[in-house]
Each structure stands twice: as structure tokens, then as C-alpha cells.
Specification:
By secondary structure, this protein is α/β, with parallel strands linked by helices. It has 2 domains: 100 residues, NIF3 (NGG1p interacting factor 3)-like (Udp-n-acetylmuramoylalanyl-d-glutamate--2,6- Diaminopimelate Ligase, Chain: A, domain 1), CATH 3.40.1390; 119 residues, Udp-n-acetylmuramoylalanyl-d-glutamate--2,6- Diaminopimelate Ligase, Chain: A, domain 1 (3-Layer(aba) Sandwich), CATH 3.40.1390. 37% of the residues lie in helices and 24% in strands. The relative contact order is 0.17. Helix 5 crosses helix 10. It has a 6-stranded mixed beta sheet, sandwiched between helices. A 5-stranded mixed beta sheet has the order 2-6-5-4-13, sandwiched between helices. It has a two-stranded antiparallel sheet with strand order 1-3. The protein has 10 helices and 13 strands.
């Protein structure tokens, strides 16, 4: 049975506590489509490839982690942005996007969901003194080598990660999905043996080497596939809807 778009959006906003989170983009309903929702398509980013795939399966709503209208971007509706919005409006499909609320959520959040994939027991925030740092710290059931943990990441995410290997066995892990490589300094202060993020910067190599901790860059897209799936599943269960996750591969 279909649910009213307004009801679904209200529940998603409430569940993710959007009103309490300051972000770089609007969270929630970014493009309004048909008033009733029966089929949800979820994906990491609202790319043209995802939009086209959603049209093919007659989706009513697209749910993503990376949506549109970021602070500082050109507001003109031209080029790629025009084509994307035209696709949504032509086919009367809604776009629902959650950025930091989906990173932070304790159940369906990207960071918590990645921990489940990697068998990490969550202990708490990466930096308890700074709520803007969305990463977490946790522990493994048994210590492993950095290379063994890297293989675990590869098996879970389906891609070979970049590994900078430190000298210690891996017992405690810090991580932040997506572009969280800048939190490596907080990871050092947290006393972890390995820090994992989606991306790496030039200086990340030196921070890992000089502080003698292992570092893994597992891919921005790859580390953020699980939160949006979990949120889509939650909404599908809550309102008895159809939900289909569509993975549009991205090597970064």
C-alpha cells in the first residue's frame, strides 16, 4: 500500500533527528515528486546513472546520501544539474537526501553500518570533545595484522583498499566513512592501532608513518553504501513499501 510522501519524509526526518544537525546541504526532501510513494530506490549519490536506473524500475522516490544544493556551489540550473533535475521532474520522482544525519545515526548510520560489516565492536565517538567529528572508535574480538584486516575490508567492500602498514597488531580501530581522512590526528590521540576512512590525502601518508599507526583508504563510495540501504530498509518496513538498492560503481 502506498504512503503519503509527506508522511514518509516526516518519519525519516524524525528518525534521523535532522533538525538537530547542522550540515553543508539541505537534509530531507530536496525535489518533490508524486504525492504517494510505493517504491523506493536507494543509492549513494544522486548521479544521472542512479536517476536513470530509478526511472527504469518506476521508482516513486530516490533516497541518497549525497544529494544536491551544497553550500558554495553555483546555484544556476545548467548543464549536469539541469539534466538531473529535468529527469526527476519529468518523471515525477522525489529526491530524499541525508548527509551528516546518515553518517551519525546510531542504528542506520554509515559508520555504525560499516562497523557491522567489519566485525568491529563500537566503543564510542572518535573525538568525544568535538561533536563535529563523526567518526567512531571500536575494538576487534581478536588482534589481527594490518594486512589481515585489510583483506577483511576487501572482502566486505569488494575492492582492494590502500594500506599504509604500521608496526602494531590491530586491536583498536578508528574510522570515518567517506572523506574523513583529516581525522587521522584525532585517531592518533584516541590511541588506535589503525585508522580507516574512505579517502586519503597526501599528508595522510606522513601522519600514519610518523605516528606509526596503520591507515586504510577503502573508498568514499564503498564505505558509504550501507547506511542508505539500512535507512531504505527501515522505511520499507515501517510503511510496507518496496525498496531496491542500486549500486552505481564508483572507484573513488
Amino acid at each position: 500500500m502506498a504512503v503519503a510522501l509527506s508522511t514518509l519524509v516526516e518519519e525519516a526526518n524524525r528518525y534521523l533527528n535532522c533538525a538537530a544537525i547542522s550540515d553543508y546541504c539541505p537534509n530531507g526532501l530536496q525535489v518533490e515528486g508524486r504525492p504517494q510513494v510505493l517504491r523506493i530506490v536507494s543509492g549513494v549519490t544522486a548521479s544521472q546513472a542512479l536517476l536513470d536506473a530509478a526511472v527504469e524500475v518506476n521508482a516513486d522516490l530516490i533516497l541518497v546520501h549525497h544529494g544536491y544544493f551544497w553550500k558554495g556551489e553555483d546555484p544556476c540550473i545548467t548543464g549536469m544539474k539541469q539534466r538531473r533535475l529535468k529527469t526527476l521532474l519529468k518523471h515525477d520522482i522525489s529526491l530524499l537526501a541525508y548527509h551528516l544525519p546518515l553518517d551519525l545515526h546510531p542504528d542506520v548510520g554509515n559508520n555504525v553500518q560499516l562497523a557491522k560489516q567489519l566485525d568491529i565492536t563500537v566503543e564510542g565517538p572518535l573525538d568525544p570533545s568535538n561533536a563535529k567529528v563523526v567518526g567512531l572508535v571500536g575494538s576487534l574480538a581478536e588482534p589481527v595484522t594490518a594486512r589481515d584486516f585489510s583483506r577483511r575490508v576487501q572482502e566486505a567492500l569488494g575492492r582492494e583498499p590502500l594500506l599504509i602498514e604500521g608496526s602494531a597488531m590491530i586491536r583498536r580501530v578508528g574510522w570515518c566513512t567517506g572523506g574523513g581522512q583529516g581525522y587521522i590526528d584525532q585517531a592518533v590521540l584516541a590511541g588506535v592501532d589503525l585508522y580507516l576512512s574512505g579517502e586519503a590525502s597526501e599528508q595522510t601518508f606522513h601522519s600514519a608513518r610518523e605516528n606509526d599507526i596503520s591507515f586504510i583508504a577503502a573508498g568514499h563510495h564503498a564505505t558509504e553504501r550501507f547506511g542508505v540501504q539500512a535507512l531504505g530498509d527501515y522505511l520499507a518496513r515501517r510503511f510496507a513499501l518496496e525498496h531496491l538498492f542500486i549500486d552505481c560503481p564508483n572507484p573513488i
